Amino acid sequence: QVQLVESGGGLVQAGGSLRLSCAASRRTFSTYAMGWFRQAPGKEREFVAAITWSGGSTYYADSVKGRFTISRDNAKNTVYLEMNSLKPEDTAVYYCAAGGSIGIVQANPAYWGQGTQVTVSS
Predict the structure, then answer these.
(1) By the 8 A CB rule, do 93 and 99 touch?
(2) Does residue 21 surpass a pLDDT of 80?
(3) pLDDT in tens, 22-32
(4) Is it the case that residue 19 has pLDDT exceeding 80?
(5) What is the 3-state secondary structure (H, E, C) of the chain?
(6) Beta-carbon contacts of residue 120 (< 8 Å; ≥ 6 apart)
(7) How far, in Å, CA of 34 to CA of 2, rounded?
(8) With contact defined as beta carbons under 8 Å apart, do 85 and 65 qualify?
């Protein structure tokens, strides 16, 4: 079992930045691929970004490519999502997820965090 706890959400103006963090409970964190998803009101949860266990490869949704950066620190059991040039349409609850591979974490993560709210005002 892996417990994931997100933090760093909040209210920001359009064009601003936020950095989300996700702390994992297990020492085996470094063996998991990690991802971020988001769910806006009235919409389905969608993939945002993912990173391999080593941090060597990253993947992004087209809607955030060039604005968001996913990274991880395996020594701290933490994955980050740096969000720049935020838009009102980025408003959503952001969830951290873990999976055994980059494919699994994108399609059907094994573990989810509880989510953190990001609100971007225009």
Answers:
(1) no
(2) yes
(3) 999 977 788 89
(4) yes
(5) CCCEEEECCEEEECCCCEEEEEEECCHHHHHCEEEEEEECCCCCCEEEEEECCCCCCEEECCCCCCCEEEEEECCCCEEEEEECCCCHHHCEEEEEEEECCHHHHHHCCCEECCCEEEEEEC
(6) 12, 13, 14, 16, 86, 87, 88, 89, 90, 91
(7) 12
(8) no
81 and 64 Cβ atoms separated by less than 8 Å: no
Both tokens assigned to 59: 């993947």
Q: How high is the pLDDT of residue 63? A: 97
pLDDT at 28: 79
d(CA 88, CA 106): 24
Residue with tokens 């009235």: 42
**pLDDT digits 0-9 by tens, 49-74:** 999 999 999 999 999 999 999 999 99
Structural tokens at position 89: 């349409």
The pLDDT value recorded for residue 52 is: 96
